[in-house]
Specification:
472 residues; mainly alpha; Hydantoin permease; two-stranded antiparallel sheet; 3% strand; cell membrane
Length: 472
Amino acid sequence: MDNTKPLIEPEPEPDDDGRIRRTGNVLTASTHIITVVVGAGVLALAWAMAQLGWIAGIASILTFSSVSIFTYSLVADCYRYPDPVTGKRNYTYMQAVKAYLGGTMHLLCGLIQYTKLAGITVSYTITSSTSLVAIRKAICYHKTGKEASCKFSNNPFMIGFGILQIFLSQIPNFHELTWLSTVAAITSFGYVFIGSGLCLSVILSGKGASTSITGTALPPADKLLRVFTAMGNIALACTYATVVYDIMDTLKSHPPENKQMKRANVLGVTAMTILFLLCSALGYAAFGDNTPGNILTGFTEPFWLVALGNGCIVIHMIGAYQVMGQPFFRIVEMGANMVWPQSDFINKEYAFMMGNVMLRFNSFRLVWRTIFVILATILAMLMPFFSEVLSLLGAIGFGPLVVFFPIQMHIAQRNIKKLSLRWCGLQLLSSLSFVVSLAAVVGSVQGIIKDFQKTNLFICVDNSSFRNQNVK
């Protein structure tokens, strides 16, 4: 009997759509969700809690988390069309909207979704450089004293971050990001626990600030704008709609993708909610009305722990950049493939071995992704307040992407009768989400106006503290 093994391993059987067989599961999907939703903006939720107070703050976090679990379960059922188990796959959010709601809605969804995705990469570049500058300042103050002039430019750190992302952006697709997403998810827990731990130490030492049920006392007009911004921050922190179908498209077919995604959604959002409540409550209890936009900036000692927390933010931003950028890369490359299906420059893959690892190379991917990362880095250097602009984009996107489109697709899929009790309830939820988005827009515009008044464009100033805006 010939026991020799073949030199070349047989190709695995393709999936039901002819593509490479998917191997993702509930755990990997939950990891991707946590990587996206537990962004550095979670450190700003203590500020949001300070504006709303204990009752409204906790209620808002629980409400938005519950809405997210509900609407993302509707999204999961629309991954396949028309049947949620045996139907044809929708590889992107846009495709699902087109299948259920038609072409006009499809274009509106794409405009909102991919504009936000592109903007997020710019914001992550700014956030990572801000944290790196904070590390240098912490070390500088520790060595020379708090009276020293420790000012550093963000630009070199943005350039370094951009160079790293050029290499990471050559990862072919979302399916191969599990390792990077896992590292990012772990570090997100790291800086959240460091920030929360430092706040807890202040509370246990008896130096915590006074708090109130209604939050920060301000004149009515200022209070209203602060409440709008705070609620917008909480709502935006709960969203991962821009990548939900990219995550689903990594799941194996058995059990059905929608069932796996619903479980992953519950696990991911539950973990998110616990972290949000922990971080916001401890931060508010420690700082009271003076809660900073990022609770880590409220501490200078122990400097090594503060530096470690900011380092965790940087590592998380490295992974989150790819998790959010890959869907944008994908839609552009799919479009190029449709326009030039015979072009070797766009479509031909070159495989080569590096040690025991098989790597794939594509000319178009190399050129266009490199250009995109360079442009995103330059934009971050030119507009260091871009996170406020991103908050505006996110505020506009919350209502449509997280609530409106999922509800309308669910109504179309289930043929829910107009003016029935369920139809009215769903439409009421959609209307309320529009109000929240509009309120968040008002708060974001206020922040942009203030930044225009005090920021010199094209000069990346030293700014080691986050705005009171969510950078997600």
